[in-house]
Specification:
- The chain contains 17 helices and three strands.
- It has helices at about 10-25, 30-45, 45-60, 60-65, 70-80, 85-100, 105-115, 120-135, 145-160, 165-175, 180-185, 190, 195-220, 230-240, 250-265, 280-290, 300-310; strands at about 225-230, 275, 315.
- The protein has a three-stranded mixed sheet, with helices on both faces.
- The longest helix has 22 residues, at about 195-220.
């Protein structure tokens, strides 16, 4: 589907089928492709089929190397509730909250599902739990956590709750010319039926501001990503393509170079940094698509950029308390993050 295709002209069922076929051809990208396919099925109105796709992802998590099962469960819960399976949706939502994921997206999705069904107190509690898990002792909230704070602000405005420190932080992070308090004013709906031209003009300005925020989020460039090879993958890569040993003298040096490169980029003011993890089959397929040999080291940065463009990048640095990007299983602050503030 072309990015400029009007939504009303999209055959969502056909697009979902195309994405499922593509996922079969590129198993390393199956998770994002199947999630997109499920979204198209939801838009087509075939919510049971979307649930089937979410179940497929969750049941085959080992073979697909599912990166974010909490996200899939959150999406499944939101979808289930929309076609009458409230009890199952609530159970899944409770499970997601209990798991306390380190990714903000599942928190936002389950909180918005509660909000959409007028469970405002529960939605506020969910947004707040997510903020506590992800933002405790964090000096500068990562961009990915902004929707968590904005959603919490919105629900609290609907509940008439007074501003607290996180609401103030949300106001500070919000860059639109229209303040959050005005965008989240529960009385906005009445202005749409007003005969007062000034009120209508003000609401048009608010809608334009919201649209601008959404466009900014959608147009946010993919991260400047550094390529990471797990130890087994790097061994396989160097065994098959010995010339690349000049790029990777050892796995330990490879990991140290990644961290040093990212810190240098951060120090230079480069925003939106990330890490992409390579696999030998994926890299070989990329080299074949470029008509080049995998032994050509100039392909490596292009491969990293391609993975980032596919949405495969993990933000760097990891959030507080998250495991290290290197795969050691240790907390980042106790591994490659040693010595960071």
């Amino acid at each position: 589907m072309r990015p400029d295709t009007p939504a009303e002209n999209v055959d969502h069922t056909a697009e979902a089928a195309r994405l499922e076929r593509t996922a079969g051809l590129y198993p390393e990208d199956a998770e994002p492709l199947l999630l997109q396919a499920a979204a198209h099925l939801e838009l087509s109105g075939d919510r049971p089929a979307a649930t089937t796709l979410y179940d497929r992802l969750l049941s085959s998590s080992a073979s697909l190397s599912l990166e974010n099962p909490h996200l899939v469960r959150a999406l499944k819960a939101s979808n289930l509730w929309e076609y009458g399976h409230e009890a199952e949706a609530r159970a899944i939502i409770d499970g997601v909250r209990a798991a306390a994921p380190r990714d903000p997206a599942p928190w936002v999705i389950v909180a918005e599902a509660l909000e959409a069904h007028d469970e405002l107190e529960q939605a506020q509690e969910t947004f707040t739990e997510g903020a506590r898990v992800l933002l405790a002792d964090v000096a500068e909230p990562p961009y990915s956590t902004h929707p968590l704070l904005f959603g919490r602000h919105r629900v609290r405005r609907m509940l008439g709750a007074p501003h607290d420190d996180w609401d103030v932080l949300a106001d500070t992070l919000h860059t639109s010319p229209v303040p959050l308090d005005e965008l989240h004013d529960p009385k906005r709906v009445w202005s749409l039926g007003s005969d007062n031209p000034a009120e209508l003009a003000a609401e048009i300005s608010r809608l334009r501001a919201e649209l601008g925020t959404y466009r900014e989020a959608l147009s946010r460039p993919f991260p400047v990503a550094v390529l990471h090879w797990p130890k087994d993958e790097l061994t396989e890569l160097l065994t098959a393509y010995a010339p690349l040993s000049e790029e990777y003298p050892s796995h330990e040096e490879h990991l140290a170079t990644i961290e040093a490169s990212l810190r240098e980029l951060a120090a230079s003011g480069t925003p939106n940094l990330g890490i992409v993890t390579g696999t030998v089959p994926s890299y070989e397929a990329f080299a074949a698509s470029e008509g080049a040999s995998p032994a050509d080291s100039t392909l490596l940065p292009q491969y990293a950029t391609t993975l980032a463009a596919r949405g495969r990048a993990v933000a760097w640095p990891p959030q507080r308390g998250a495991v290290c990007w290197c795969g050691s299983g240790q907390a980042y602050g106790e591994c490659h993050g040693t010595g960071t503030a």
